[in-house]
Amino acid sequence: MPNHKIDVGSILTNLPLFRQLGPDDVAHLTQGCRELRPQKGEIVFQKGDPSNGFYVVAHGQIKLAFPSTHGAEKVVEIIGPGQSFGEAVMFMEKPYPVFAQALADSLLLHISKQALFEAIEHDSSFARKMLAGLSIRLHSLIQDVEAYSSLSGAQRLVGYLLQNEGAANGALEVELRASKQVIASRLNLTPETFSRILHHLTEAGLIHVEGPRITIPDVEALRRYER
C-alpha cells in the first residue's frame, strides 16, 4: 500500500460509526487519531497488551485470534473496512484478550481513549451508536456459540457462504477474503474438515471452487443442504 498522506477526517466521516458526527467532533477525533499501516502478516497488538484506544479499519483486513502453544490458533473475528475493534476492552480498561494480525496490507486508524470520551460527552448519539455496534458484535458471538453447539460443520460452512446473500436466488459468486485455514478456524473447523466439506459440496454440484472464488449455481439448493 502506498505510504501517501491521507485525509483522516474524510475517512472518519465516511465510516458508519462516525457518519452522523458534526465537523467539530470529527476534527477533534482526528487530533486524537494516528495512522497505522501494518503489512500482511504483521502483528498489530499481542494478547496481554494494554489498551488506550480502539481501531478502525479504513482499508485491508485484520484477524483477531487466541494464540495457541500448539500452533493451532483460534480465530475469533475477521475485521474488514468500515469496521472497528477494541472498543469493549478499552471501556473495561483490561489488556487485550486476543492478538490482532493483518491478513492483508492495511490502513488502520487508532482513536485515543481521551478523544473518544470527549466526543461521547459532547454528543450522546455517538455513545448510542457505539453501544449498538457492540451489541451487534455480542449478538454475533452468541450466534457463533449456538452454531458451534447445534450445527454440523457443513451447515456452518454453508451459513458462512450465504451470510451476505440476502434474499438472492439463482447463482451467486462468493470471494473468500481470507485463507481457507483462517476461515476454518473462524468456523471452529480443522482445515482438513473444511477442505473435505468443500469437496463434498463440489461433488454434489452445489458449488464450484476456483482458488478463492466460489460459485454457487443455485442458492436455494445450497440453502436446503442438510436443513
Helix-strand layout with pairing:
Blueprint: H1 8-14, H2 23-31, E1 33-36, E2 43-45, E3 53-59, E4 62-66, E5 74-79, E6 84-85, H3 87-92, E7 99-102, E8 107-112, H4 113-122, H5 124-150, H6 153-161, E9 172-175, H7 180-186, H8 191-203, E10 208-210, E11 213-216, H9 219-223
Antiparallel strand pairs: 1-8, 2-7, 3-6, 3-8, 4-5, 4-7, 9-11, 10-11
Features:
alpha+beta, four-stranded antiparallel sheet, single chain, Arc Repressor Mutant, subunit A, Jelly Rolls, 21% strand, 11 strands, 227 residues
Physical arrangement of strands within the biggest beta sheet: 1-8-3-6
Question: Judging by the overall fold, what is the CATH architecture of the largest domain?
Answer: Sandwich
- State the end-to-end CA separation: 43 Å
Query: Which whole number gives the mean pLDDT?
Result: 84
| Sequence of secondary-structure elements | HHEEEEEEHEEHHHEHHEEH
Please estimate the helix content.
40-55%
Query: CATH first level of the largest domain: which class?
Result: Mainly Beta
Using the CA coordinates, give the radius of gyration: 19 Å
Number of strands: 11
Tell me the CATH topology of the largest domain: Jelly Rolls
